[in-house]
Amino acid sequence: MYSKFQNIETPFYYYDTALLEATLKAIRDEIKPYPHFHVHYAIKANANPRLLSIIQQAGFGVDCVSGGEIQVAINAHFPTNSIVYAGVGKSDKEIIIGLRNNIFCFNVESIPELEVINQLAVKENTIANVCLRINPDVSPHTHANIITGMAENKFGISMADMEKVIWLANSLPNIHFKGLHFHIGSQITNMGDFQLLCDRINRIQDWLDSHAIRAEIINVGGGLGIDYQNPQVNTIPNFKDYFQTYAQYLHLRPHQSLHFELGRSIVAQCGTLITRVLYIKQGTYKQFAIVDAGMTDLIRPALYHAHHKIENISSTAKTYELYDVVGPVCESSDVFDINIQLPTTQRGDLLAIHSIGAYGEVMASSYNCRQLPQSLTDKDF
Ligand code: LLP
Known about the structure:
The protein is α/β, with parallel strands linked by helices. The chain has helices at residues 17-31, 49-57, 67-75, 92-100, 111-123, 162-171, 191-210, 239-249, 264-267, 300-304; strands spanning 12-15, 37-42, 61-64, 83-85, 105-108, 128-135, 157-158, 175-181, 217-219, 257-262, 271-282, 287-291, 310-312, 320-326, 335-343, 350-353, 374-377. It has 2 domains: 2-12 and 269-380, Lyase, Ornithine Decarboxylase, Chain A, domain 1; 17-266, Alanine racemase (TIM Barrel, Alpha-Beta Barrel).
């Protein structure tokens, strides 16, 4: 397969759609025993139209965080009644896009936002379906930049305000209160973190019961992590453990449906960034492999100190050397990884940077006036 990459302009994103299909099937198989479980794909992870079309055809709903994402989801033919929409700063224009398309649910993150949605719904002569995003103050074990569910984070409504906001939601004429939404963070691999969220929701549910408040929907967000160290071994995340954790520890009421917003775990492993080595440079203390992809094409290492497995896919060398793999962008943080062992590498070799299907292409920029890479799939070869 990789020999076919030799004559293609680099860098480019390569997507294995067969793996994406297998991943979607694994999810469908695991939730089959739970007909009240619904998965909304978090489109922020990757909005490539070819991937969206596969995810849409597999029958998944969609989770959006902007009016632009709602528009992209509609263009990809996701049913509007499968769209959930979160975000701390929804503009009037974005709220109107949601209202006019009669989306499944706004995940509302503050009291003023709830009031604005009501006012706009009155103007539009419609009813807005609303879940309240509660900040459960649960700390997952992941990078600080991708934790969302702690009290100091900007997301959601504090537990202390929850009662007030539910009463307000029920009193506003053009708001239909549907339930509660949570999302504690991303790249979570310890099921105990999701179990803690379940415990917190169980206590909230007891409180709802004692106040005779009916929630039809519980949405637990996304966050399931993937194996960045062994992407070729653990190609499909452990969805069984993930869904079983919720089935076992979350005590739903008989009329309730449970919603998930999975992004990374669906698309991360099917994407690879293919880049060519421009130069091998001997520094004072280091040997650099300077490649033609940069932080503009994959910002995760610079932004979160993320490690993506890097493989030399064209070398046949039997000897190994240490390299810092760096990009061409004029920033010291334009480094993919340091001190990694690769077969002796030379100008022209192709490197594969793995697990970039989530938050890779979608976070690309044209800083340094760089051209955005093209994307290809297994279907193109
Ligand atoms: N739902 C909400 C409300 C979210 O904020 C997110 C991700 C998701 C669902 C999907 O989470 P996932 O299943 O993908 O973990 N750019 C960062 C990740 C940012 C995640 C933002 N929110 C990264 O590259 O690691």
